[in-house]
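Weekly structure sync, notes
Attendees: PL (lead), two postdocs, one rotation student
Agenda item 3: pending single-chain targets
PL asked that the sequence for the first pending target be pasted directly into the notes so everyone works from the same version. It is reproduced below exactly as submitted, 512 residues in total.
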Amino acid sequence: MPAGEPDLGVAIERFLATARTPALLEPGEDQFALAEGQYELQRRGGRVVIQVWDDTRNLVRRVLAVREERPGRLALTVERFARQQGQVLLLDLARSKPAEERRGARLVFREQFRRSLLRQFPGWQVAELSTEPNLEESLSPAYARALVKKGASGLAALAAPPEPGSAAGALTFGLIWLDYLRRRERRLTVEGLALFLPQAEARSIYLRLPFLNPNAARYMPFVYSPEGYEDRLDPADCGNLDTQLDPVSHLSQASPPRAAAWVERLCGLPFVERVALNGGAVSLRVRGLEIARGTQRGLVFGLEQRQAAGEGSLAEIEELAREVALRRSASAADRDSPLYRLQPEAWLESQVRGHIEHIDSSLYPSPVYGQVPALAGGERGVIDLLAADRHGRLAVIELKASEDIHLPLQALDYWMRVKWHAERGEFSERGYFPGIALRPDPPRLVLIAPALEFHPKTETILRFFAPEIDVERIGLGADWRKRPAVMFRVAGARRPVCDNGRPDPRLVRGGP
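Predicted structure, written out during the meeting:
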């Protein structure tokens, strides 16, 4: 079809209106589900931009042309950053065989879950069993969930399927399911939550259980084998944390002298930030977006593709930094630019680092470390920072620029590891926070996001946290890229309030 710009938005909207299960696929990446609230189509000045996101990723592409349109498939030519062209596909998964296969597999797993419940809870009745989505309660169809009853007692139960990575969100959705049943089943005492997890995926979940409030609910974790047999675990005996705290090292200790000199020259630009990384590396960033990195081997630079820097590369790197600073600015004219929209969490991290005393005056502005200790499993959907307050207490800071239902429990993963090392005095021993007398107390946990981007279920999940976890949520104004103004600051699971003491519906999705 003709690729004129006026037709682009019409073609995409027509596809989305007719697709039953729309998804976006960019070659080389996992597909994005185009569910309500997980994508945005924008038209500005004759340009069409599509943005999609999920729990861990965000993708923004400017649409240049429609390459092909046929039932269940729309191929688009798009602009990636650095003005490179690529292709994305819009697909209707309902027309594909894999979608039917997944639905069939879920039905099979649901019945396996029923048998597990009957084995583990003899004498109880499986009153409800479902794998259907519940959008109002943010319950995913990827997990089988059940209500089991015995007299006036009930239990919420949730099972993660055996696919790799499926168990990661099980506790989040399990707690939401438990809370929902308690609100719905007024005549039942829903005592707690039974979780059924694949044996190979369970460890990261049951490590969290000792940090939930035992007075809020009973927690009953089970692991199941590929053969379908279950074992009940003891939440109080969950083994050791998989955590590692490397000593602090600096670029000058491990890298060629000329690389250190180049780093110093580039840091002389007013918009280039220096962020120390584990292992002695240093990241050079412009409003959170890394443009170069100093390592043991030297300096590498670039956005999509990295190359080694030489004497003649510094002018090119400086020009790259200026280009990124121009496009990645709160006052940028083109807010559809991929450079503007890329990695919003990294931009938010940059703002928090630069204004940390404004956000929380009790914190030292420096040093502020990135992810230490390191977590097994690589990248996560949130950015975590570690700071110290003026009383010597550590503060774990978790950042998210957009809604993330898993934010509280992902933050707990990091908090428990920092607590473990703090109790043993390892941060001071290994060179962190020089000159600051650190206390071995459990760290504070600070969740920071734009005020309207805290997921409505955040408070639900926080209500199950153990009292020893000192949690604070800080909501920033929508114009945080310009300056991170604090809109609210609340402790624990409390809701932001107006002057009259009632929950402020402007700051919390879902209303009072």
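Discussion points:
- Residues 1-6, 508-512 have pLDDT under 50 and may be disordered.
- The domain at 5-93 is CATH 2.70.180 (Protein Yojf; Chain: A;).
Action: rotation student to compare against the earlier draft before next sync.
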